[in-house]
Amino acid sequence: MPKLFGLDIAQIINKAMGPGLLPAVLTKMTNGELVSGSLTSGMHPKKSNYNCRGVIEEYLDRERDGTQVQDGDRKVILLGASISSGVFPESGDLISIEDEDELRVIRVVRDPAAASYTCQVRGG
What we know:
This protein is mainly β. It has 1 helix and 6 strands, in the order H-E-E-E-E-E-E.
C-alpha cells in the first residue's frame, strides 16, 4: 500500500473502521486449465475469493445517467487494507456483501492512499 506523509493511511483506516463494516468477498476470475481430451471446450475459469470489509449503498437519482450509471447499479466501498496484499478490485470481478451475491464490478475508483476502493456494481 502506498504511504502518504510517511503513514500507512490504508492500514490506519482499516484498523479504525474495519470491525464496524460489513464482511464481503471479492471474487477474481482467472483462466483455469484446458479440459483434457477436449481441445474445443476452452478454459475453465478459476475463482479466487478474498475476504474483505466494506459497505453497500445506492446511487442518488442525480448520479444515474442511464448510460454509465444505470438504474439498479450500486456502490460497494471496500477498505483497501482489508483485502489480501497485492489484490484490488477490477472491472469484471465479483463482490458478495450483505444479502447480495456476485455483484459484477463495472468500474473502480481508488483514493490516493488505496485506503478505499469505490466499486460501481451491477446485478445480483
